[in-house]
């Protein structure tokens, strides 16, 4: 009889072996020599985590208690694998193309990346799976205790064994399940260790079966006779239970987080499913082959009242087959540990990604972009989640006290997980399914399952007896086991029928009534039509031909030389001879990073995905690409605006420059004219004053004449300087105008008499007094100055024999117009446009002034809000003054 200490040693040795296998597999995968690790055989074996301790030990117990009903547990997955493998293929394809990390991620991704949905699924999974983990821990304890009861060692303690087992499994899951974050990279170590465990438990069960049939019963026919004789062989079937449990097993096979983990997340190649579709049912057939014989023989050979759940272990022990019992123990241990490890990994991913990380990120909103930081936190949160889930299982085991028949917790758990099925299948096949629908279905199903199955089933006073018997608040139609008064159903059937049908109804109704968001619509299309979007089963690996395409693309983005250097470096690293590297996942990853530096991560991912073709471009990728190109477009738009601005500024500068050049030319012109104008009187003043000074014998009249000339020239000079000063003050806008109301005829009177005083007869001035009675608001002195200048010009330049000037006043368009028209020959046509320029004179010899009068007059009129122009088409000199009426303020 093996002692407990020996058992513990064997267990430790076995766990050490698992560690070595997992470690070696990870090493092999890391060095790229892992082809056999990715074989369909390993994939099929890893699916065997479906068979937990519940099936290893429990199936025999189940058969001993309920006959052939245990077959349903194997029938479900077999039906799915054989009858729905194309559906599984779709699931795997979607999982790969969307790079999902868990079933919660898949559901949330399908319904518009809703984290609320992910949290719902996570909570449902944690609530549903924790009792299941506790169940595995219990089975290990139970199997240990068998050896204790019959062994001699003392001091056996349930709780401490479970604690160390749980701790050990947590360490294993943390070590091999959280090595990397990338959902695309597989956990080769864990999967390989699980495959090994699958082999151990199959061999163990087959070993016990063979011993029972040939060792104890004496052959196949004898065994068949025994089965026929026992009540198990009576083939009693409860139709509704069969159908329900088969359905539950089918649903659980697809929806259990750990199954999803090995089937979808860890899947390397879609084609493995094809192999698994016959290989896995075969595995199930083999593992269930000897269940009935063991149960029948166990019932016969074991004393009354012994636990049928432990027959697999106790039958060989009772027959003194210690080695076989040891093997059987290891088989059960394998079943329990593999399930716990993968379940903890899958659940921790969900908890960490959908609960812990969102909370952490929202609390760190400003530091979230530090990627190294985040990576570290994700790993930590996954590790903590694994530990927390194991702790939950452990405490659940301690609190519930164990004891309940293994199978019942398993079925309760299955029924909970099955609530995900409508949202999952609906999401894969029905584009109209919406997030609200999924939420409604999940909540209704989860609530009913809690109320009708989990709470009543867990015991421990979670649901008081009186609620079970009379319903809450005395409402008998709300009794958990007889909703709406439907009685007499098996609790499992009752719960599954109600929760699933109302789940589906709520899912469909809410989907039909709600409108999906654009992202939901896009994701829906991606899921339902996944085979149109993704090309093949390959992942980020491609052929050398694709290397060329990658090269061409990289050259476009990185530049020819850089791309060639990169590719050559990679080819050298891979040890190849050519200049093109193999498109290994490692290389593709590096290339993606390199390209990401130039075009953005999302675009790089999408581009490589397009060429390598393994994973379809996800909506997220497309949106991210669109974002990036929108940013680029905005940036180039900004550049365009800037460049037109620059062009406009340059044009303005050019214009300003031209103006400055012009002004500078004008200034030179002006200065030369001024110096000329000044020099003439100065020359005569100097000349005559020198004569006066140097010549002694000048006659009196001569002296007088010279002095007069000097005086006149000085006056001219003064007038010129005054005019210049006046003009410059006016042009600089420094003039102060003294605006007042007055009669136009008064101003004209003043001007005419000022010019003609002492020179009557030199010019006849004709006026129409009637029209002159106009009130104007203006600087009347300045206005008179303009009139004086015009009248004086007519006096000076009118060359008619009898000079006449006609002054007429009109009202034109609300403005006062004063015309000064004489009967001389006027200003020649080619000079009319320049007559207002400074220093302009038509005939310099004839002119009396410096050519500033009209320039000053025009400047004055502009300042007064009016104008002064030369009128074409008149017979003589014709000037027109325009000025605003009184009441219309000058625009100053
Ligand atoms: P100034 O102050 O030297 O008189 P203006 O600017 O008043 O100069 O006049 C410029 C030129 O316009 C004069 O030299 C003259 O040739 C011409 N001009 C002005 N008024 C008349 C007119 N009524 N008839 C003919 N020519 C005129």
UniProtKB/TrEMBL annotation:
Q: Where are the transmembrane segments?
A: 6-29, 41-64, 70-88, 116-135, 161-178, 190-214, 242-260, 280-303, 323-356, 377-397, 403-430, 437-458
Locate the coiled-coil region(s) and give their ranges.
639-666
Enzyme class per UniProt: transferase
Instruction: Keyword check for Coiled coil, yes or no.
Output: yes
SUPFAM superfamilies on file: ATPase domain of HSP90 chaperone/DNA topoisomerase II/histidine kinase, Homodimeric domain of signal transducing histidine kinase
**Catalytic activity, EC:** 2.7.13.3
This entry carries the following GO cellular component terms, namely: membrane
Name where it mostly resides: membrane
**What reaction is this protein's catalytic activity?**
ATP + protein L-histidine = ADP + protein N-phospho-L-histidine
The membrane-topology field of this record reads: Multi-pass membrane protein
What is the annotated localization of this protein? Membrane
* SMART domains named among the record's database cross-references: HATPase_c, HisKA
Picking any one GO molecular function of the record gives: phosphorelay sensor kinase activity
- Please report which protein family the annotation says this sequence is part of: Belongs to the sodium:solute symporter (SSF) (TC 2.A.21) family.
- PANTHER family named among the record's database cross-references: SENSOR HISTIDINE KINASE RCSC, TWO-COMPONENT HISTIDINE KINASE
Q: Quote the protein name from its UniProt record.
A: histidine kinase
């Amino acid at each position: 009889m093996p002692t407990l200490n020996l058992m513990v040693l064997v267990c430790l040795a076995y766990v050490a072996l698992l560690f070595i296998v997992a470690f070696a597999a990870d090493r092999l995968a890391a060095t790229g020599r892992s082809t056999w690790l990715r074989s369909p055989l390993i994939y099929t074996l890893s699916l065997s985590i479906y068979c937990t301790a519940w099936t290893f030990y429990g199936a025999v117990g189940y058969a001993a208690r309920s006959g052939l009903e245990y077959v349903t547990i194997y029938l479900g997955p077999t039906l799915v694998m054989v009858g729905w493998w194309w559906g599984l293929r779709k699931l795997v394809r979607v999982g790969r193309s969307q790079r999902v990390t868990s079933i919660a991620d898949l559901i949330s991704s399908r319904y518009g990346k809703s984290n609320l949905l992910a949290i719902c699924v996570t909570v449902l999974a944690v609530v549903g799976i924790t009792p299941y983990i506790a169940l595995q821990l219990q089975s290990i304890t139970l199997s240990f205790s068998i050896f204790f009861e019959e062994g001699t060692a003392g001091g056996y303690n349930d709780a401490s064994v479970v604690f160390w087992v749980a701790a050990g499994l947590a360490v294993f899951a943390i070590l091999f399940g959280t090595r990397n974050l990338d959902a695309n990279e597989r956990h080769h170590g864990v999967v390989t260790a699980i495959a090994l465990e699958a082999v151990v438990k199959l061999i163990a069960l087959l070993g016990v079966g063979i011993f029972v049939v040939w060792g104890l019963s004496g052959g196949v026919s004898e065994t068949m006779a025994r089965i026929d004789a026992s009540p198990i062989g009576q083939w009693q079937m409860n139709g509704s239970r069969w159908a329900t449990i088969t359905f539950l097993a089918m649903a659980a096979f697809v929806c259990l987080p750990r199954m999803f983990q090995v089937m979808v997340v860890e899947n390397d190649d879609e084609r493995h499913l094809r192999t698994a579709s016959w290989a896995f049912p075969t595995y199930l057939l083999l593992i269930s082959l000897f269940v009935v014989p063991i149960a029948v023989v166990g019932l016969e050979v074991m004393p009354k009242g012994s636990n049928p759940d432990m027959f697999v272990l106790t039958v060989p022990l009772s027959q003194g087959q210690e080695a076989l019992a040891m093997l059987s123990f290891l088989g059960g241990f394998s079943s329990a540990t593999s399930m716990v490890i993968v379940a903890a990994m899958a659940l921790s991913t969900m908890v960490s990604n959908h609960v812990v990380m969102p909370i952490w990120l929202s609390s760190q909103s400003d530091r979230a972009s530090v990627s190294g930081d985040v990576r570290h936190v994700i790993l930590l949160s996954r590790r903590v989640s694994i530990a927390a889930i194991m702790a939950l299982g452990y405490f659940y085991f301690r609190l519930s006290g164990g004891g309940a028949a293994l199978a019942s917790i398993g079925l309760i758990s299955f029924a909970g997980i099955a609530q995900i099925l409508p949202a999952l299948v609906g999401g894969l096949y029905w584009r109209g399914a919406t997030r609200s629908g999924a939420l409604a279905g999940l909540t209704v199903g989860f609530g009913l399952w809690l109320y009708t199955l989990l709470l009543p089933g867990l015991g421990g006073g979670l649901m008081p007896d009186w609620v079970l018997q009379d319903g809450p608040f005395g409402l008998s139609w709300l009794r958990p086991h007889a909703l709406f008064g439907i009685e007499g159903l098996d609790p499992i059937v009752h719960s599954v029928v109600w929760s699933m049908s109302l789940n589906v109804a709520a899912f469909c109704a809410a989907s039909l009534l709600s409108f999906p968001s654009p992202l939901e619509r896009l994701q829906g299309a991606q899921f339902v039509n996944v085979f149109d979007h993704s090309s093949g089963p390959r992942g980020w690996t491609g052929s050398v031909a694709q290397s060329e395409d990658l090269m061409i693309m990289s050259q476009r983005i990185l530049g020819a030389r850089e791309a060639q250097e990169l590719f050559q470096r990679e080819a050298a690293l891979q040890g190849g001879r050519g200049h093109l590297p193999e498109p290994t996942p490692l290389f593709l990853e590096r290339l993606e990073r390199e390209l990401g530096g130039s075009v953005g991560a999302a675009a790089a991912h999408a581009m490589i995905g397009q060429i390598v073709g393994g994973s379809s471009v996800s909506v997220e990728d497309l949106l991210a690409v669109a974002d990036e190109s929108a940013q680029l477009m905005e940036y180039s738009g900004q550049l365009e605006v800037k460049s037109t601005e620059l062009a406009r500024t340059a044009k303005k500068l050019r214009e300003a420059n031209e103006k400055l050049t012009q002004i500078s030319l004008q200034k030179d012109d002006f200065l030369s004219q001024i110096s000329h104008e000044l020099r003439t009187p100065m020359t005569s003043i100097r000349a005559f004053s020198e004569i006066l000074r140097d010549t002694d014998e000048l006659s009196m009249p001569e002296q007088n004449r010279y002095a007069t000339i000097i005086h006149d020239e000085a006056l001219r000079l003064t007038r010129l300087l005054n005019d210049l000063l006046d003009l410059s003050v006016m042009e600089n806008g420094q003039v102060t105008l003294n605006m007042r109301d007055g009669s136009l005829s008064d101003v004209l009177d003043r001007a005419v008499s000022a010019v003609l005083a002492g020179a009557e007869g030199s010019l006849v001035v004709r006026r129409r007094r009637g029209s002159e009675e106009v009130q104007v608001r203006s600087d009347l002195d300045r206005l008179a100055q303009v009139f004086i200048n015009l009248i004086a010009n007519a006096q000076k330049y009118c060359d008619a024999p009898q000079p006449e000037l006609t002054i007429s006043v009109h009202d034109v368009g609300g403005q006062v117009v004063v015309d000064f028209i004489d009967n001389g020959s006027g200003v020649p046509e080619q000079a009319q446009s320049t007559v207002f320029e400074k220093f302009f004179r038509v005939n310099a010899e004839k002119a009396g002034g410096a050519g500033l009068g009209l320039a000053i007059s025009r400047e004055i009129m502009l300042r007064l809000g009016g104008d002064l122009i030369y009128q074409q088409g008149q017979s003589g000199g014709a000037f027109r003054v325009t000025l605003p009426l009184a009441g219309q303020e000058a625009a100053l």
